[in-house]
Amino acid sequence: MPESSLLAAREERISNDKRAKYRGSAQVSIEHLDFPHPCRHIDTNVIEQLIRDFEGEGCIKDTNRIPAIIDDSVLHAGLKKLAMSAESFKAVSNSVPPRLDLERDVRIECLHGQHRILAAKKFLKSPKRWWIVDFYSSDLEVDTKQALREGEFYSEPYASGEIFRNFRLCCYNKDDLGAQRWRNRLKPYQEKYLNIILKRETLIKALDSVLNISGLWRSFYAGSLNDFISLGCDEEIARFIKAIKTEFTRIFGNNMVIMMATDPSSIESIQSRAPALSKSDFKFIDEGMRSGELFPAVADPVTRENIAEGLLSTEMPIQSLWTLLCDIRYLKKPARLLNVLLPSRKERKIKNSLYERFRVSFTESTSNDFEVQQSTLSYKPLSGNLVDHFDAAYQQLWLCACRVWKYPNVYGLIQLATLAHQLGFSTTEIKHERAKDPGHIIIERAFREGHSVLRPGEKFSFDPNQAISLIRLFNEKMDETLGSSPIALYPFITVAGPAEPLSRRCGNSSKDTEDLGHLFLDKIHAPLQDYQRAGDEISSFYVKRSRHIAFFGTLALENNPQNTSTRVLSANPPQTQDTSGMISSHAGSPIEESRYSDEGSSNRAQTDPGPIGRVVTFMENNVNIQQVPYEKQKINNQAQKYAAEGKKLRLENGHHFVWYDCFRVLELAQELTVIVHNVVQDPERLDQEMTYMEADI
């Protein structure tokens, strides 16, 4: 039988069961109404909106009725007080529902409408706190119960992300009819994108892997699946989603029950926050967990404490499906530039994703050394395994595209093509872009623009041979201007004053031009302890760093001890030579000394002993377990030992921090005591297997 026929037969069966099991409708005190199996999480915003609707329109409407299950004995006891038979009650109650008085301890199982009842409890005054309930007998079929839970009359429609999630859960449960029912709720264009993405194995597996974190899905807009499809960055999106899964699995202690019960409002409140580095984020999450506003469904104190520990120790901005949708848009224009360097997919039958298309155009180096761009024109050699070579090269192309698309001019694409060639990529398109002379293009454009103003309407022909000296002079001046490579200091990841606003921590921003000089591989993948800090709030660079790592992953970059010189290239690629012909001699000192001499001096100064006699005390369970001199290296080394044992660090006032921040935090707080403690564990979950970390659901 066709699937559509099966679905129609199921709907007819449900309709018949509802009619057969309907017992009547009545006004019931809301104190008797219970929601043991809610189909949605409590959302305070929805409740407040319903209260405003009730104030303007009232709440006694047919669409506000809620379905419920009632035991025959409870119904008969209520009807006895009304002196009505069951048949009379069923016949008249639908049009004129009577008031049904039930015993004080009776609870009626409602199938949906919990937001309406919560709003009514705030809106209605006694003794008018009653609601119209449609009663069904307790022998309703399972499908009928589920259909009533998903009925068409809701205080708030299902978000398209929730529809997508329920559709995929039905697919996993082999519930074809349920999957079709949820699919039918999507708009036609959303279903079109769904059909396409179901064929993209990398993307659908990634999305399926976070189905268990229910709070993520309300803000996931199914219409944005078009961005997933058109961008051609399947591997990057999948890696971002894996980062979401890994972080929330850590925060919730791999507790699948809690992750299934996460509420959307809490997820939306913590997304983009980095409490381990941001003082304001730390305060917001700490207060929210203490007050119960965050994750209110988690009542157990031990579990709440563990979740708070996990949240407050989070260094990177907390990602979600919403931040993913925003950040995908950030990649769109750089992706367009990168596509220019590749053959058209119509001309070559190659894989769709940018990652795979660049992979087939990359030639692996035969040595363990590869080059990393320090600035626009300078490179330094690093060592690493061969697997790292392509990832390092590919990430550098993306960083370059992120830098140059903001200022569209002839140098941008030529710079990107030159870098691609330098890193080992080879396509006809790259060769074509490298063959262009930016001086020629700029000089010709200047002549044409000037002629169109001074001699409007007259034909103009540009002869490059007559302008060759001018073009050469222009290129030489550009090389002279850009030839000296500036000292590259590590950027700030924290700043004094206000933090980077939450509104600018994902997606495009009016300040995206800031930090472009720091979007280089060695700046992005430096250890946190190497960056500069100036306050207690995260910087705009740190947001960009975190976004890049979420999409592309981390790389361990090590200096090559055999060759620490820095190479400088010309700003204008020669037209008849390979890149090797552009290399100019550059007398360089050792990398760490030349690039980070200022910061190195600062770090050396910090390791000097403090005032004589000052010591830092590490305490656990109110017992002094270790004392070390007030020196940065010794304090951080001791903190690292405890961190390696799986223990947490905090000040006496409750402020948590990571081990390599120990000395800095003590200095800022002017404290000499560090509290060492274990994360409180729930004994019932100690035997949970870590295989959940890689489970699809």
Written account of the structure:
The chain is α+β, with helices and mostly antiparallel strands. The protein folds into four domains: 16-149, no CATH class; 163-325, no CATH class; 368-606, no CATH class; 615-683. It is 46% helix and 10% strand. The chain is built from 28 helices and 17 strands. The strands form four sheets. It has a five-stranded mixed beta sheet with strand order 1-5-3-4-2. Helix 12 (234-251) crosses helix 25, helix 19 runs antiparallel to helix 20 (410-423) and helix 22 crosses helix 23 (468-482). 36% of the residues are buried.
A few lines on this structure:
This protein has 697 residues and is α+β, with helices and mostly antiparallel strands.
Layout of SSEs?
Layout (H helix, E strand, L loop, with lengths): L2 H19 E8 L3 E2 L9 H14 L8 E5 L1 H11 L3 H7 L15 E3 L3 H10 L6 E8 L4 H8 L10 H13 L3 H8 L4 H10 L3 H8 L16 H7 L2 H18 L4 H5 L3 H7 L8 H13 L9 H12 L8 H20 L13 H6 L9 E5 L4 E6 L2 H19 L5 H14 L4 H7 L3 H17 L13 H15 L9 E4 L25 H4 L7 E2 L3 E2 L1 H13 L5 E2 L7 E2 L22 H16 L8 E6 L2 E7 L2 H13 L3 E3 L5 E2 L4 H8 L3 E5 L20
Parallel strand pairs: 2-4, 3-5, 8-9, 13-17
Antiparallel strand pairs: 1-5, 3-4, 6-7, 7-11, 7-12, 8-10, 13-14, 15-16, 15-17
Helix pairs in contact: 1-8, 2-5, 7-8, 9-11, 10-12, 12-25, 15-16, 17-19, 19-20, 20-21, 22-23
